[in-house]
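haha ok so turns out i had the wrong file open the whole time. this is the CORRECT one, sorry everyone. sequence first:
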Amino acid sequence: MATRKHAPTKPKATSRKRTPRKKEAASQGLDPRACVVDGEDEALADLEHVVQKEGGVVVGRYRDPLGGHAQLFAIVPVDKIEPTPFQRDLSDTHHKRLAEVIDRTGRFLDPIIAITAPAKTGGFWTPNGRHRLEAMRRLGGKAITALVLPAREVAWQILALNTEKAHNLRERSLEVIRIYRDLLIDDGDKSESSFSFYLEDPALVTLGVCYERNGRFAGGAYHPVLRRVETFTDEPVRDAIHTHEKLADLTLDVEEKVSAAVAKLRDKGLVSPYLRAFVVARVNPLKWIHGELPPAEQVLTTMRDRAAKFDADKVRQEDLARAGGAAPDDDA
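then structure:
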């Protein structure tokens, strides 16, 4: 009797992003006058004290025109600001290009975002502005303009906030795992799913562990697989990290076997920028599965075992040609 096919399952809503619908003009947020902070605001008063203590000057207090969050516009010493420790690595080329442009115009026109750093370090962290900060340091700047926010969680929103330079998969994954490890320090007892907005995609946590262990890991070949079978869980963060680390171990095992298969194809004289993607597609069991998807651990174990048995002698150049259009081996 024929097996009834069901539509493939989809990830939980927490792992999907939705673009907000366009709303009626001038229908959201505050009017300009409503953005003025009148009277005392306890959170801002404490923040003003920190700015002054660190040698900065508060230029203004206001509520942001969309969400109405109270925040400061300030000028603070450059040497009192550091990038958050879990964001992507500095691009030497990008910050030097920024420094050149700022120097040529003689104006710094794009304030960075700043939050107060932990008490043990003092000063401020910027989750969005590392390259601008480094450009000002390169130019010998004494001070920098900043939007100073009294909300710690902004530091975790760097994937959404950082628009200076587009993230590739490696950068996104490393930022996510660095955020995750920061959460382990103070928020390890909270559920992983409660941080889904900041972490964006559970597969990025697993890939981040992979990149920590192997900086040259080709994550682009495995992200489409992992994001179909991974979901944020209600387990505490300190427990959920062990699942991601176990899946990362398996993914790296798969990559080791896939790399060996790719080497065999190259030894055979087959040439294509899609060799790794081709092998991964051949050993990926998900394209034959209908209905509920198996657990991520089972999928990766199957891929590892199939990659170990991959027969390069059965592959022809025309097979690679037909597979063209898949993601290339790099993560750019």
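The first helix runs from residue 42 to 53.
again sry for the mixup
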